[in-house]
Design goal:
The chain has helices spanning about 5-15, 20-25, 30-45, 75-85, 110-120, and strands at about 65-70, 90-95, 100-105, 125-130. It has about 140 residues and is of the alpha+beta class. Strand 2 and strand 3 form a beta hairpin. It contains 5 helices and 4 strands. The protein has a 4-stranded antiparallel beta sheet, covered by helices on one side. It folds into 2 domains: about 5-45, Arc Repressor Mutant, subunit A (Orthogonal Bundle), CATH 1.10.10; about 55-130, Alpha-Beta Plaits.
Length: about 140
């Protein structure tokens, strides 16, 4: 990985639909050279996927936030299955600390949040924070010196 690879990653992270030619113009390479570098990063699993950024408010899921959960050990597997199947839970992280699961949720309002928290209560204690504003979700990857 050299500086050019990092530049390509930042361009794709900002807009994964950027054409090979546009990327090449920005980093000083031909489109085939850019394609080869991207393919190499995909093979090495540096680039794992290409995704879209969904504005959940436009889908009427205007309440988002985070839930820390301390599932009881014997219920952890069923808790993970619950998280996978529940559409209100949009990401699930295993973390270390007093709580060992961090969930991100998106719901239509307080009624849906209350229903979600009632379900989570079956697995263990939780602590909820409702998101007020997002300052950023991704950052540019720092270029090597």
């Amino acid at each position: 990985m050299d500086r050019t690879d990092y530049q390509i990653l930042n361009i794709l992270q900002a807009d994964s639909r950027t054409t090979l030619r546009q990327i090449g113009d920005q980093v000083g390479l031909t489109a085939p050279a850019v394609s080869e570098r991207i393919h190499r990063m995909e093979e090495k699993k540096i680039i794992r996927d290409y995704r879209i950024d969904v504005d959940r408010e436009q889908l009427d899921c205007s309440m988002t936030g985070f839930i820390l959960v301390a599932p009881e050990p014997e219920k952890y597997n069923s808790f993970c299955e619950f998280c996978q199947k529940n559409p209100a839970i949009i990401s699930h992280y295993h973390v270390i600390g007093v709580f060992n699961a961090l969930l991100r949720f998106a719901v239509r309002g307080t009624r849906e949040l209350d229903e979600l928290l009632s379900c989570i209560k079956r697995y263990g204690d939780s602590q909820t924070s409702v998101q007020l504003k997002t300052y950023f979700e991704t950052k540019e990857i720092v270029l090597p010196r």
